[in-house]
Amino acid sequence: MKAIVGLTALAMLLTTVAAVADDPPHATCEVPAYLLATDNKLPKVAEAVKTDRKLDIMVIGSRSSTITAPDGTGFPGRMEASLRDKLPGVTVNVALQLQVKKTAEEVTKDIDQLLEGKKPTLVIWQTGTVDAMRSIDPDDFRTAVDEGVAAMQKAGADVVLINLQYTPRMETMISTTPYIDIMRVAAQQREVPLFDRFAIMHHWNETGSFDLFSAARGVDLAKRVHDCLGRALATFVIDAAQLKPAELRIQR
Amino acid sequence: MTSVTDHAAGAFTGHAASTDAPSAARAAPTQSVAITGAERELRLDLFRGLALWLIFVDHLPPNIFTWLTFRNYGFSDATEIFIFISGYTAAFVYGRAMRSRGFVVASARIFKRVWQIYVAHVFLFTIFLAEISYVATQFENPLYSEEMGILDFLKQPDVTIVQALLLKFRPVNMDVLPLYIVLMLFLPLIIFLMQRKPDLTLGLSVLIYAVTWEFGLNLPAYPNGVWFFNPFAWQLLFVFGAWCALGGARRMAPLLSSRILLGLALAYLIAAFFVTLTWHLPQLGHIVPRVIEQWMYPINKTDLDVLRFVHFLAIAAVAVYFLPSGWPGLKSPWLRPMILCGQHSLEIFCIGVFLAFAGHFILAEVSSGGAGIHFIVSISGIVIMSAAAWVLSWYKRVAAKSGTDAKSADADADLAGGGS
What are the start-end ranges of the E strands in B268-419? Predict the structure, then answer.
């Protein structure tokens, strides 16, 4: 008798486990509010949107700011689309300056050239990946990020920093933690918002939004991740600039 | 169980004197810090075992266990403990050898040990190479095409492998053994000086540390950058461990039992805890004044930041205060696995690194990294490490019994050092 009860209980337990496992992964890619919270503001973005109804953004990034697919599917393009959607009546332009295989120091060296004649209101700087891969001395990385952000601010732009991707497959190969820590501190010291791409992607992987371990060769997963990143980044920029899209609509 | 392993612990130092230890140590708690007699200091084994477990857990992808490791609650982490205790035990064991057998023989023994560590490192590198070669051929997700670039070094194995043999090319999580190799290479010199002028030797070590910070000394790494654990800075912990082993701890005993020091240590640990808290909960960022933030950051692990070193000292002071050497818990079967791991640190460290690789692999290939499988991987890793340590203890006990007396005495010195 006991054995039968025990077996039944076990069977029930197993079915529950199986049912849980069968649950389809969430198709959404929501980002919890705390991952998008920042104390640092984007006053120039707020002003440009409110007075000029215009927002020029330059994204400076390495390869992971893009995907090998038709233009506009990387997160900069998705952010542009999302911002246009969320900020009706505002002319949003996003220019992408790819700096493939360049460390933060190399980008910082060229920063004046990159910004020359462009006068973006906001510079979004995605960095750290190349430095982590080449294990650049953390001290040098810190100096480079700090000087780079300072140069962008000096050129009259607000700045947003984007850190590394969460790359579960490569965790035994790339040491990301020091670079992520440094970017957090650098952002805090220069008072610029940091878009924590690493934590956000990690969250998506944990909650099952995306399987970032996937060995799929197709570009589909990359497209979906970049779409979600682009939308989250748009929300992040709007929040950090303390814009209220509803108010903009009324003004129109 | 307890009695068997006790016997084993005694056998390491060649003396089965562990049975009467608790009462003796309780009677004189201030002496507890130093290993004065032949008694194996179980607390060192315990904490080194703990450090090995924590290093393993920290090398796995972050999961629920990671929150139990104390790098999340303060500045220092398991590496500090590992290096300090290694310095302590190595100086203790080889220091004795140097007194009884002379400088040359003891040095030869130390270099034999260095060779073992080097071979272990190369072995781990081979496993690493196998793993990433697999990833390189199997895995091609366009989302990560940039990060996959790290595998480019596979295109020139000639350079890479030579650089690895020169300890200049070191994959992630394989930085501790090269540091250890360099530190051990200088151990004969350290002990030689320490046995004559201990305080001067410690002073020299502090001086090298200061010069390192002033002039940014480090060893070059391949393809670029520097050693993740700067030997010029981390030697301070190792030498400090040696200084404690060769009499320093005994001299510090009155200081360590003072309540004022305990209070200071606890205050520092609590302050560090709150600072660390702001890393995980940025909303709390305002509790650390900006001035302090500017002065404090960055907390440099590569060069063993003073804040980290002091944090380690505080932990050590608190641990020594609350866990005197006669602490009955040391005999508890529950702590046995940890102690055993600490007694075979090189082997268990290597197994831990290997298991961390394997854990990554399982999490990537078998599951998509759910919390449940994460938990299982962490637990199994610790169980495997403990089981391996138990087997090693068993084997050494058997081997020691079957050897002649002279032979086993020699082996014992190696074994105890082998623990280092």
Answer: none
Single out the residue of B215, B209, B211, B190 nearest to residue B200, CA to CA.
Answer: B190
Q: Among candidates B221, B218, B227, B223, which has minimal Cα distance to B159?
A: B223
A249 Cα to chain B: minimum distance (Å) = 31
Collect all residues of chain A within an 8 Å Cβ-Cβ radius of residue B172: 171-175
Nearest to B142 among A134, A165, A222 (CB): A222
pLDDT on residue B264 = 95
pLDDT higher than 50, residue A16 = no
The CATH code of domain A30-251 reads: 3.40.50.1110
User: How far is it, in rounded angstroms, from Cα B116 to Cα B113?
Assistant: 5
Nearest CA in chain B to A128: B147
Using CA atoms, how far residue A93 sits from A66, A68, A73, in Å, is: 17, 22, 15
**Calpha distance B299→A180 (Å, rounded):** 13
Residues 6+ apart with CB under 8 A from B198: B243, B246, B247, B248
Question: Is the Cβ–Cβ distance between B355 and B363 less than 8 Å?
Answer: no
Whole-number CA gyration radius for chain B: 22
Residue A46 structure tokens: 């707020």
The amino acid at B102: G
Residues of A in contact with B371 (CB under 8 A): 206
Q: In chain B, which residue's Cα lies nearest the Cα of A33?
A: B283
Q: Which residues, 6 or more positions from B177, have their beta carbon under 8 angstroms from its beta carbon?
A: B117, B120, B121, B124, B349
User: Which residues from A are below 8 Å from B364, CB to CB?
Assistant: 168-169, 213
Q: Judge whether B351 and B388 are in contact, CB under 8 Å.
A: yes
Instruction: For chains A and B, count residue pairs whose Cβ atoms are closer than 8 Å.
Output: 131
Q: Is B141 within 8 Å of A129 when comparing Cβ atoms?
A: no
Where in chain B are the domains? 2-418
Taking only the tens place, the pLDDT of each residue in B330-342 is 889 999 999 999 9
Residues, chain B: 420
Q: How does strand A91-98 pair with strand A122-126? A: unpaired
ipTM beyond cut 0.90: no
Contacts of residue B298, Cβ cutoff 8 Å, sequence gap at least 6: A138, A139, A142, A181, A182, A185, B305
Q: Is A185–B298 a contact, with Cβ atoms under 8 angstroms apart?
A: yes
Please enumerate in sequence order all residues whose Cβ is within 8 A of that of A24, keeping only pairs 6 or more positions apart, or say none.
none
Instruction: List, in order, residues 6 or more apart from A232 with CB less than 8 Å away.
Output: A29, A31, A36, A195, A200
For B69-93, the pLDDT digits (tens) are: 877 888 999 999 999 999 999 999 9
- B136: closest CA among A222, A221, A170? A170
Smallest Cα–Cα separation from B55: which of B78, B24, B86, B39?
Answer: B78
Beta-carbon separation of A136 and B128 below 8 A: no
